[in-house]
Amino acid sequence: MDLVKPFMDLHVGEASEVIREQCQELILSDKQIEEIMRRLLKEINKGLNKATHPEADIKCFITYVQDLPNGKEKGKFLALDLGGTNFRVLLIHLKDENDFEMVSKIYAIPQSIMLGSGTQLFDHIAECLANFMKEHSVYEEKLPLGFTFSFPLTQLGLTKGILARWTKGFNCSGVVGEDVVQLLKDAIARRGDVQIEICAILNDTTGTLMSCAWKNHNCRIGLIVGTGSNACYVERVDNCEMFDGPKDPNKKHVLINTEWGAFGDNGMLDFVRTEYDREIDHFSINPGRQIQEKMISGMYMGELARLAIVKFTRAGLLFGGVGSDILFKRGQFFTKYVSEIESDKPGTYMYCRDVLDELGLEHATDEDCANVRYICECVSSRAAHLVSAGIAALINKMDEKSVTVGVDGSVYRFHPKFHDLMKAKIRQFVKPDISFDLMLSEDGSGRGAALVAAVACREAH
């Protein structure tokens, strides 16, 4: 007897025929996945190519990170992780292979600074850095620093990154179009009291790959599936026409930050988008942008499920046609609800009932619960399959015999089936002679940043 059934079939007996039929458009066929892989690769090649880069959806930014950790990095390193309303400062002491000590502190960025001048922002960061170094008795030492900056950057080198645009509620004047590494250096110099050598600037995807590569030397892809979605991978320098500056003949590879959330912005994914996807895009703060991300990430998954549930309720197919004010309110069905509902054991609806109670749907029947769970499964499986299509395409493109994918992000971490769904789907579409593994990253944006600095120092000395 076959005990391992695909997840999509687990509760088929419970969801009603009509709901399954209505959800069909949320299920990607193998043929569609193959087409998505083909289109994604085409877009990646456009991003790598100088002539087509300007119109490419997937920008494939060069990170200038050309060396992966070999486990022999030693010493003390600072990391600065700026990606939202807080930032973290970390001190990492790498001792032996896989042995390290780490202390960190989170600092808030007041609203006035988020909307103030760039000078204010970087002075605030430099002050917190100096205080942190005092607290941890490294004030007198000259330490290398890795800077994770999770905003869209055009990198011109390992220590040169031009801010393309602010996101996430920031709007500091005098920073867009400027080199953020230089702005941080200037702020440190204005203080004149601490010695910090900024060795690298990177985004969280690169950090994820580096963090995993320190433990697992086969790591060639970094993936984020959280509030947003992005991936980076190892590419041959020969394929990177956008690589600017001197090329080292001994370094044949470089990390590429794909920024694949923007896949589909030019209509490439229209053939699999649904009315729910179009509605989410229409009401988002960036209509027409980040189309793939809106089908995958934690910022949108709950709302996708809610839109389907609302449609079926209004059609009389759920809850006897009686909804609730909360259900009908945009953004009130959180992505964590999807994970909770799918955590119920088959045939039980404990978490599902808790969620529906919170939404004011106490009148839900067992069949309603089964149908809601099926809708959630369709939404999360589609997200996992879209991610898998991208990862399989990258693994096949690199064509190495064994590849580890470092993964981070709340959706991958907390959804009960995301990992297994990805493993099965990637296996289906990766060349049969390639083996791969998915590895949960531990603190890519922190430890990964320190590791990029450590590797840069190893190379420089």
UniProtKB/TrEMBL annotation:
Q: Which family does it belong to?
A: Belongs to the hexokinase family.
Q: A Gene Ontology MF term for this entry?
A: D-glucose binding
Taxonomic lineage from the root:
Eukaryota, Metazoa, Ecdysozoa, Arthropoda, Hexapoda
| Domain of life where this protein originates | Eukaryota
Has the keyword NADP been applied to this entry?
no
Q: Enzyme group, top EC level?
A: transferase
| Record key words, sorted | ATP-binding, Glycolysis, Kinase, Nucleotide-binding, Transferase
Q: Which PROSITE patterns match?
A: HEXOKINASE_1, HEXOKINASE_2
Q: Which residues does the UniProt record annotate as the domain Hexokinase C-terminal?
A: 220-455
To which pathway does this protein belong? Carbohydrate metabolism; hexose metabolism; Carbohydrate degradation; glycolysis; D-glyceraldehyde 3-phosphate and glycerone phosphate from D-glucose: step 1/4
Which Pfam families does the entry mention? Answer: Hexokinase_1, Hexokinase_2
Q: What GO cellular-component annotations does this UniProt entry give?
A: cytosol; mitochondrion
Query: This chain belongs to which protein, by name?
Result: Phosphotransferase
Reaction equation(s) it catalyzes: a D-hexose + ATP = a D-hexose 6-phosphate + ADP + H(+); D-glucose + ATP = D-glucose 6-phosphate + ADP + H(+); D-mannose + ATP = D-mannose 6-phosphate + ADP + H(+); D-fructose + ATP = D-fructose 6-phosphate + ADP + H(+)
Q: Which PANTHER family match?
A: HEXOKINASE, HEXOKINASE TYPE 1-RELATED
GO terms in the biological process aspect are: glucose metabolic process; glycolytic process; intracellular glucose homeostasis
Q: Describe the function of this protein.
A: Catalyzes the phosphorylation of various hexoses to hexose 6-phosphate.
- Domain Hexokinase N-terminal as annotated: residue spans: 19-214
For this protein, the Enzyme Commission number is 2.7.1.-
